Amino acid sequence: MGSKERAKERREKRLQEISLLRTIPYSDHQRWWSSETIAVVTGGNRGIGFEISRQLAAHGLTVVLTSRDSNVGLEATNVLQEGGLNVIFHQLDVLDPLSIKQFSEWLQETYGGLDILVNNAGVNFNLGFDNSVEYAQKVVATNYFGTKNMIQAMIPLMKPSTTGARIVSVSSRLGRLNGRRNRLEDVTLRQQLGDLDLLSEELIDRTVSNFLQQVEEGAWTSGGWPQTFTDYSVSKIAVNAYTRLMAKVLSDQPEGHKIYINCYCPGWVKTAMTGYAGNILNVL
């Protein structure tokens, strides 16, 4: 059996495992949440964000579905509400500090804060074998800075809990530091981004700023950046690094105020972002 066949076999096995897991209900002792648990999902109007919102609400949580576009956000929310799910819509643009501020104030006033933040909002303008950096500024701003801004804004609003609050950011395998392909060529930079003792917000910001500067100068192709979906990959490298950094920072939270943070790769999902070319359909 060749490598492609083995990869296909592993993928099909994993899809079967995921499908099975989705049919197993949570037992009472596994449930740390209730209908009063507030989950905020950014970019929840379609694709993975919509499915995350649906499944969280289906498990009995109160979901605040957010979208930059109010029309599509309300439409998505109505669909879920018609299915009997407790989903509320609020407009939110993760690139707009004022929008984040207004959302934070509304969230505090309406629910007294939140328990779960899912950073799903993100963009990618490349498909197939394309690798344009025409929209690199927007990709990095949305995927990295938007995620970072939401984390910073929501942490003070996280509700005290014996089980801890949660922050989960959607990322990608394209953001791995240790991949054999499509990785940063600068060994020193990889080591710095992967070493918690060396990692800092300033280092992450400087890395993405250097990339954007090279894009502006037309020199990015020789800068040692990942060569597949370069702007998207760089943005997810930053998301992964910032998540590791915040995990270290938040590890000092006292009992009753714990905040657990992580990021994950959902796989190659059949959504608008992948041009509906993914191999996973409606599966988290």
From TrEMBL:
One cellular-component annotation, GO: membrane
Coiled-coil residues: none
Superkingdom field: Eukaryota
InterPro entries cross-referenced by the UniProt entry: NAD(P)-bd_dom_sf, Sc_DH/Rdtase_CS, SDR_fam
One annotated GO molecular function: oxidoreductase activity
The entry's keywords: NADP, Oxidoreductase
UniProt key word Oxidoreductase: yes
Family classification: Belongs to the short-chain dehydrogenases/reductases (SDR) family.
Alphabetical list of PANTHER family matching this protein: (+)-NEOMENTHOL DEHYDROGENASE (PTHR43490), SHORT-CHAIN DEHYDROGENASE_REDUCTASE (PTHR43490:SF99)
Name under which the protein is recorded: Uncharacterized protein
Protein's organism: Fagus sylvatica
High-level lineage: Eukaryota, Viridiplantae, Streptophyta, Embryophyta, Tracheophyta
